[in-house]
């Protein structure tokens, strides 16, 4: 599980500068798929100087699906049941892992190391 505590805000005077909320959602979905694990994104809410922290905390499953989310610009406690068994299930679905010949890979890595390949 990847837990991302964030302090992500936006500049209300310059919304065209960066869509941090959209970026945050895209990044968490990317990492959940890439690492095939749950991602928990926890963001601050409120205002400080010129920044507005938007909240919108969320949990993404290993398939990249948002399974729980908090509200926008509102403090909230969000709970979700996480089935950690989904992680090995998802990893088993990915052809790279599912079809891997790990014994062959281990033999080749050992052979390379013995030949001085790790110098």
Task: Summarize the structure in words.
- This protein is of the alpha+beta class and 119 residues long.
- The protein has a domain at 2-81.
- The protein has four helices and seven strands.
- The protein has helices at residues 20-35, 86-93, 95-98, 102-114; strands spanning 2-6, 9-10, 39-43, 45-48, 51-54, 58-60, 66-69.
- The chain has a four-stranded mixed β-sheet with strand order 1-3-6-7, covered by helices on one side. Strands 2-5-4 form a three-stranded antiparallel β-sheet, with no helix packed on it.
- Strand 4 and strand 5 (51-54) form a beta hairpin.
- The radius of gyration is 20 Å and the shape is elongated.
- The chain starts with a strand and ends in a 5-residue tail after the last helix.
- The mean pLDDT is 86.
Number of E-state strands = 7
Low-confidence region ranges: none
Total helices: the number is 4
User: In percent, how helical is the residue content?
Assistant: 25-40%
Question: What distinguishing features does this structure have?
Answer:
single chain; 119 residues; alpha+beta; 4-stranded mixed β-sheet; 3-stranded antiparallel β-sheet; 4 helices; elongated
């Amino acid at each position: 599980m990847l837990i991302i505590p964030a302090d992500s805000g936006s500049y209300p005077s310059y919304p065209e500068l960066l869509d941090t909320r959209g970026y945050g959602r895209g990044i968490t979905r990317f990492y959940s798929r890439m690492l095939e694990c749950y991602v928990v994104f926890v963001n601050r809410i409120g205002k400080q100087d010129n920044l507005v922290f938007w909240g919108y905390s969320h949990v993404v499953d290993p398939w990249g699906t948002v399974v729980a989310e908090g509200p926008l610009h509102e403090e909230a406690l969000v709970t979700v049941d996480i089935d950690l068994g989904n992680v090995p299930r998802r990893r088993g679905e990915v052809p790279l892992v599912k079809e891997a010949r790990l014994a062959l890979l281990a033999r080749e890595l050992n052979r390379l190391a013995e030949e001085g390949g790790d110098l």
